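Lecture 7 notes: from sequence to structure.

We start with a single chain of 155 residues. Read the sequence below before looking at the structure.
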Amino acid sequence: ITTIQNDYNGKTMFDSIASDLMIDETFSLMDESGTMETTLYGNAVISGDTYRLKYKEADDSGMDNVSTTIKFKVDAPECVTLIRTGDVSSIMYFEAGKRDISVYNSGVFPFEVCIYTVSLDNRLITDGYFEVCYIVEIKGAQAQKTILRLETTSI
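Now the structure, written as tokens:
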């Protein structure tokens, strides 16, 4: 992404900039399920002080008709919101060492999930790299450790 930096009243802001991307996604469940690797296409936009990466999930991922947006403040890349919309919807907040409760709508019924962020490496703006390791807790089910890794390339 080419950034154009402006200073407004002492605060760094960025003009709207968009870039089409190829995204190599690796999604690992830390159990017998294994790892799924997919190449996706999306775009990244920096508008004001917010970065947004948006892409459509792969049809064979079990999330048909779902778009994912990864969003964070440019000056706070250690705090990330992941928003899924479509047949499956959820909002998850990631910050290393923090726990967040949200609602996951499976398309059949919504249920509460607790997300604990083990680690977060967000270098999307500088290196096109994002990795979050988190634990999903669902009432009445065993906690699931997950790693989501994205590597982006401009196209």
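The longest strand covers residues 11-29. Keep this in mind for problem set 3.
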